[in-house]
């Protein structure tokens, strides 16, 4: 997907993003977030707690996704960052996740981070696992049954890592 | 060490605990916490964010350590808990960490958690790694150079896990 724009997410963007966020966490296939999280708690989690959050739009101005970037730990662990990505259902399969991950790595490097870590990639989310691997991430650990998948039951999660 | 008491940590306990907390994070050998964290931020992190925090005292009433217990993730990840333990310098080598970890597993089970996960056990903290292994935890992942050790430089961290 070409001509994507990345801008800091504002309140209007989050309102456009909320149906996507709400559907993804309600589904309980990929994110370890309360499925009935409130709008305000979601805004805090996605936009206020992280160091940066981007709204991603296509060339027509349509919102296609969003991601956040934050430190994964503090002090002596503060050189490793963490990101989360969500794509709108209409924009799936068009390379938005790849574009977001590449953008996030550039932003993370610019902010001085030396590595990126995903703490809990649900093992059954094979599309995501394969994409992160193609983008240079390695599975450095697997936590048994750490995720209660809404249709598959207890499934493993992967810790994935890449030096930037 | 026998006759330890475990009570919910109150403000007075935290004041007794603060020199231990401050020294451990300033040392930068084991915890990924800002080394110059403020008293208030430390109180929030250790006592307010977790589900429960315990002050541990010996039979003379002396504070020997503290631990917190919290969920390691939310929603479909909320069945896995996380704990952090600190022992006062005077009480090291007396089994306090073991006693705290055993107590925390009992508390975690009572709260309905099904597993306990440590996200970043510094690999050079061999005493801790060996103790958690003796207590039934497994290394399920290793993140390369995720911790900047104050005297050893970049060192790995382990993800450790145990079903309860």
UniProtKB/TrEMBL annotation, chains A, B:
<feature type="domain" description="N-acetyltransferase">
    <location>
        <begin position="4"/>
        <end position="164"/>
    </location>
</feature>
<dbReference type="InterPro" id="IPR016181">
    <property type="entry name" value="Acyl_CoA_acyltransferase"/>
</dbReference>
<dbReference type="Pfam" id="PF00583">
    <property type="entry name" value="Acetyltransf_1"/>
</dbReference>
<dbReference type="InterPro" id="IPR052742">
    <property type="entry name" value="Mito_N-acetyltransferase"/>
</dbReference>
<protein>
    <submittedName>
        <fullName>RimJ/RimL family protein N-acetyltransferase</fullName>
    </submittedName>
</protein>
<dbReference type="GO" id="GO:0016747">
    <property type="term" value="F:acyltransferase activity, transferring groups other than amino-acyl groups"/>
</dbReference>
<dbReference type="InterPro" id="IPR000182">
    <property type="entry name" value="GNAT_dom"/>
</dbReference>
<keyword id="KW-0808">Transferase</keyword>
């Amino acid at each position: 997907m070409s001509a994507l724009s990345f801008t800091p997410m504002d309140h209007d963007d989050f309102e456009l993003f909320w149906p996507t966020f709400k559907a993804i966490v309600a589904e309980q296939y990929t994110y370890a977030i309360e499925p009935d999280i409130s709008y305000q708690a979601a805004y805090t989690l996605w936009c206020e707690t992280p160091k940066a959050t981007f709204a991603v739009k296509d060339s027509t101005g349509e919102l296609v996704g969003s991601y956040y970037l934050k430190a994964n730990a503090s002090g002596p662990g503060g050189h490793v960052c963490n990101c989360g990505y969500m794509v709108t259902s209409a924009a799936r399969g068009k390379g938005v996740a790849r574009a977001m991950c590449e953008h996030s790595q550039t932003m993370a490097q610019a902010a001085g981070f030396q590595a990126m870590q995903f703490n809990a990639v649900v093992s059954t989310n094979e599309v995501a696992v394969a994409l992160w691997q193609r983008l240079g991430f390695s599975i450095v650990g697997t936590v048994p049954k750490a995720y209660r998948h809404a249709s598959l039951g207890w499934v493993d999660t992967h810790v994935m890592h890449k030096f930037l």
